[in-house]
Specification:
By secondary structure, the chain is an alpha/beta fold. It is built from 8 helices and 9 strands. The chain has 2 domains: 1-64, no CATH class; 65-288, no CATH class. It has helices spanning 3-30, 35-46, 76-93, 99-102, 106-113, 146-155, 166-173, 205-215, and strands at 50-53, 56-59, 68-72, 123-130, 178-181, 190-196, 244-248, 256-260, 280-285.
Length: 300
């Protein structure tokens, strides 16, 4: 073992010895508080617990994130609001993309978040069960279409942030982010709210979306880069075809969002295997991500 490697290990052990009481105290203080706060604070604490030695960063604070199970009940509007809020909370738990502003490349971002640069990781923030027998009112539909939820998030103000719509919050409140809705919402079904970290420095969203959607057998529409737009169910700006709405723009041209009607998806799994030029929060059927996304990052 090289002397520099040994020094790094020693420094990490010493550093953790100093920080461990603080971590333990923070965990004790967090008892009885929400797991969301514990996760958020552990991610934020990592940025304060990095020791640079011999040109290498040593992280001495673990991630403390676990999947949260929740039943969603209420009226159609209340269900939409709770899903929107949980997607925003998932983004908040992973520091609102703020690391994108200070880290230069995807490898550094993955390291900061505790993943390898060879991974295409995902974390299941929430397992949401729609615990209602029907969600038909006030329309005649027995489900909430993806585009309806997407439109809601583009217009509804964040319940904790005045003048910030849910979509805008994820796109650029902290750092550039992406929102994706990949399923319609049906009664008595489970849905996953997933955080996907950025994995590549190459490409732009439009090329990425085309690649992903073409790979799943789904057709795509898109907005113009740098222009905020919502493509409704009857409109299409096609790169491959019609059926997917994409929002590009906001305060940064990098931010984006989209929805895909669930009936158009043949192999949603392929979506998660692509390189990602932006970190994102995705809503999809739980069965699409249950086996592939991590549920417990505690101690890592």
């Amino acid at each position: 073992m090289a002397a520099s490697e040994l020094a790094i290990i020693i420094l990490a052990i010493v550093g953790f010895g100093i920080l461990a009481p603080a971590i333990s105290y923070a965990q004790q203080r967090a008892e009885g508080k929400s797991e969301e706060i514990i996760c958020h604070n552990s991610i934020a604490f990592r940025s304060l617990s990095t020791v640079n030695f011999a040109g290498q960063d040593v992280k001495v604070a673990p991630r403390l994130c676990k999947t949260i199970e929740k039943d969603v009940t209420g009226s159609r509007g209340e269900i939409k609001d709770e899903i929107a809020y949980k997607m925003a909370r998932c983004w908040w738990m992973f520091n609102e993309g703020r690391h994108e502003k200070v880290l230069d490349n995807a490898a550094d971002i993955l390291q900061f978040l505790g993943w390898s640069s060879t991974d295409k990781p995902c974390f299941l923030c929430y397992d949401l069960k729609i615990d209602e027998k029907e969600i038909a009112e006030p329309s005649q539909q027995s489900f909430i279409p993806a585009e309806e939820l997407f439109e809601y998030m583009s217009k509804k103000e964040h319940r904790q942030l005045k003048d910030w719509k849910y979509l805008d919050y994820i796109q650029y409140y902290g750092g550039p982010g992406e929102l994706g809705i990949l399923a319609k919402i049906e009664p008595q079904k489970h849905y996953g709210v997933v955080f996907l970290p950025r994995t590549t420095d190459r490409g732009e969203f439009l090329n990425w979306a085309d690649t992903v959607i073409a790979g799943t057998g789904v057709v795509a529409g898109s907005g113009a880069l740098g222009v905020a737009s919502v493509v409704g169910a009857g409109a299409c700006f096609a790169t491959i075809g019609c059926g997917v709405a994409v929002v590009i723009g906001g305060a940064t041209a990098a931010a984006s969002a989209f929805y895909i009607g669930a009936h158009q998806l043949n192999e949603i799994q392929a979506f998660f295997d692509q390189d990602r030029p932006l970190s994102s929060v995705i809503l999809t059927d739980l069965k699409n991500v249950e086996a592939r996304c991590q549920k417990d990052l505690s101690g890592e």
